[in-house]
């Protein structure tokens, strides 16, 4: 028990999956990218990070619990940058500046498996601190420049819908890289038919972290330089246009090509980095066979720094593509698909025999176990402030209460 008051706030934040990928740092200290990127923010009803922060004069050091387990943050520069960054924007900075902070955060999906858990986690951390300390942005997007220092992709999770991360400039507007920030291109209401189906190919921790992988790519890949100069700028423009025009054909094609470009850069890195595996590549083949059978693009795959597939599609095709994936990657566990209503529709859907004849040509035969889980979701809003009863820190002791 403690005599000093404990101030507390809880926020949830979404993941995001990039369509044009961030890969490469221009400045490792400020954590800024070598190119612009853009992503869809996913719905927190299906995947989210929930973070409680507390500050009190009775705390003796900064502490962090991740999924219920305490981590040593004494040397963690990313965590430090987020706390100090938000403290500097507090409405009453004097009130917070000397207080230590306790943080408890958990994800509703596998951590560090290429499912953007660090994006949701750092976005939730910054949003929760901002809520606790009543942070005041001096310009729109300033909080995203803080989240960026936690994890680059986290800056995009501060907004809903379709969100770009503008590379920014070393000189910035007033201070270095203060314009390397997230910008919302469209809200989640703009294209409400967009859906995402995530195939969890492996929930093991990945071998090469994004941070280490991109640093080796910057040092060794000539293809990355070509991507930065000649590929991404045009694609950014084209995909923003496609999203605003709700042109799935263009959006899907650009998304798939950019995922392929990113993984080609990984292959061009020396020594090469392999994030996709045989199952990932089989999903690519099936999606292309499906689109060829349909005569237009109904599904678009994208892969981050791990083997999991994210398939973007439209509401009208979501059951068909789900049924196709379930056919080739059948369930081997209960609650294999996160949403039961969707799972029922998918299980009952009868696939066209000509479609199956076309996708069988990929060489895939239905085998359980290669995909561990599927998440069906859509685009959603940015961080949400939650009630006190959702806190994962004890309001009287400031200690973690979350158990997985
Ligand atoms: C492949 O944001 O995890 O998912 O800034 O070093 O924390 P750090 O990297 P991180 O990298 C994400 C890479 C990606 C592409 C993307 O999300 O744009």
Automatic annotation (TrEMBL):
Domain of life: Eukaryota
GO CC aspect terms: cytosol
Catalytic reaction list: (R)-5-diphosphomevalonate + ATP = isopentenyl diphosphate + ADP + phosphate + CO2
Any single GO BP term: cholesterol biosynthetic process
Keywords assigned by UniProt, alphabetized: ATP-binding, Cholesterol biosynthesis, Cholesterol metabolism, Lipid biosynthesis, Lipid metabolism, Lyase, Nucleotide-binding, Steroid biosynthesis, Steroid metabolism, Sterol biosynthesis, Sterol metabolism
EC number, as in UniProt: 4.1.1.33
A single MF term (Gene Ontology): diphosphomevalonate decarboxylase activity
Transmembrane stretches, start-end: none
Top class in the EC scheme: lyase
Domain Diphosphomevalonate decarboxylase-like N-terminal: 13-174
Mvd1 C-terminal domain mapped to chain residues: 196-386
Chain intervals for the UniProt region annotation (Disordered): 380-404
Pathways per UniProt: Steroid biosynthesis; cholesterol biosynthesis
Bias kind Polar residues: ranges: 393-404
Role according to the record: Catalyzes the ATP dependent decarboxylation of (R)-5-diphosphomevalonate to form isopentenyl diphosphate (IPP). Functions in the mevalonate (MVA) pathway leading to isopentenyl diphosphate (IPP), a key precursor for the biosynthesis of isoprenoids and sterol synthesis.
Family membership: Belongs to the diphosphomevalonate decarboxylase family.
Protein name per UniProt: Diphosphomevalonate decarboxylase
């Amino acid at each position: 028990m403690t005599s000093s008051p404990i101030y507390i706030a809880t926020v949830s934040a979404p993941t995001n999956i990039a369509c044009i990928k961030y890969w490469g740092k221009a400045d490792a200290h400020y954590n800024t990218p070598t190119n612009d990127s853009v992503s869809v923010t996913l719905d927190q009803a299906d995947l989210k990070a929930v973070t409680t922060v507390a500050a009190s004069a009775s705390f003796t050091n900064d502490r962090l619990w991740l999924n219920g387990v305490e981590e040593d943050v004494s040397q963690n520069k990313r965590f430090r940058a987020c706390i100090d960054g938000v403290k500097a924007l507090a409405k009453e900075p004097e009130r917070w500046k000397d207080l230590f902070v306790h943080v408890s955060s958990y994800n509703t999906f596998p951590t560090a498996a290429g499912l953007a858990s660090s994006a949701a986690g750092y976005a939730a951390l910054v949003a929760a601190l901002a809520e606790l300390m009543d942070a005041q942005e001096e310009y729109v997007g300033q909080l995203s420049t803080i989240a960026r220092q936690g994890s680059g992709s986290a800056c995009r999770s501060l907004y809903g819908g379709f969100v770009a991360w503008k590379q920014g400039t070393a000189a910035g507007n007033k201070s270095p890289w203060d314009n390397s920030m997230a910008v919302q291109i469209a809200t989640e209401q703009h294209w409400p038919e967009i859906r995402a189906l995530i195939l969890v190919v492996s929930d093991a921790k990945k071998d090469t972290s994004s941070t280490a992988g991109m640093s080796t790519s910057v040092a060794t890949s000539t293809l990355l330089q070509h991507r930065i100069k000649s590929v991404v700028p045009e694609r950014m423009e084209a995909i923003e246009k496609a999203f605003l025009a709700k042109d799935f054909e263009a959006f899907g094609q650009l998304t798939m090509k950019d995922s392929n470009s990113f993984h080609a850069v990984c292959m061009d890195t020396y020594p090469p980095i392999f994030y996709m595996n045989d199952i990932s590549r089989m999903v690519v083949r099936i999606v292309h066979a499906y689109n060829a059978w349909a005569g237009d693009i109904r599904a678009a795959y994208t892969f981050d720094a791990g083997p999991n597939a994210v398939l973007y599609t439209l509401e009208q095709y979501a059951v068909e593509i789900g049924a196709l994936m379930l056919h080739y990657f059948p369930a081997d566990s209960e609650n294999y698909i996160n949403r039961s209503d969707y799972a029922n529709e998918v299980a009952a859907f009868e696939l066209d025999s000509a479609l199956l004849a076309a996708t069988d040509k990929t060489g895939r035969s239905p085998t359980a176990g290669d995909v561990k889980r599927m998440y069906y979701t859509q685009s959603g809003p940015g961080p949400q402030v939650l009630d006190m009863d959702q806190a994962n820190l004890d309001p009287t002791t400031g200690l973690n209460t979350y158990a997985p």
